[in-house]
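seq as requested:
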Amino acid sequence: MREAAITSMEAIEAAARQAALDRAEGVPATDHGSEPSILSAPSEHAGIEAVLRHRLRLPGDIRLGTYEDLNHALFPGAQLFRATRIQLSQGRRAYFFIGTYEAPWRLTFSLIAPCPDCGAPVPSVTINTQADFGDWLMDREGITEAPSFRTSPVHRLDCSIVTG
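struct tokens:
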């Protein structure tokens, strides 16, 4: 019987799970150098995409869809500046991330997933490393809630999780 080839998405998920297991076992993370500068990128979206690619250790040949998120602000209190939404997908499997600046002005990525109360697609957990993504894939405890999880305007009106 011939084994099926591992797809790029499967390889990305396997690497993320392994990074999470390594972190849990205390294995030091490999230094992949400093993050790319958003300021030297051709556009804000391209810069934010480059940072996510770096943090998740995504190979250069993996295509990402990057566009403006119409629901979430780029930083707290922003009216005109919108978060960047990044889609990592292959076939029918897709993951959506938003990049926002959170105090103290660090770029933070949140995974868009259904709210456990209302089912709306909201920023659910913070994914700033490959190991964070692996923890989420394995449904492990201790994952950090996304900064805008409880305040996302995408929650349904009757959602019990919404604050302020």
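Residues 1-5 have pLDDT under 50 and may be disordered.
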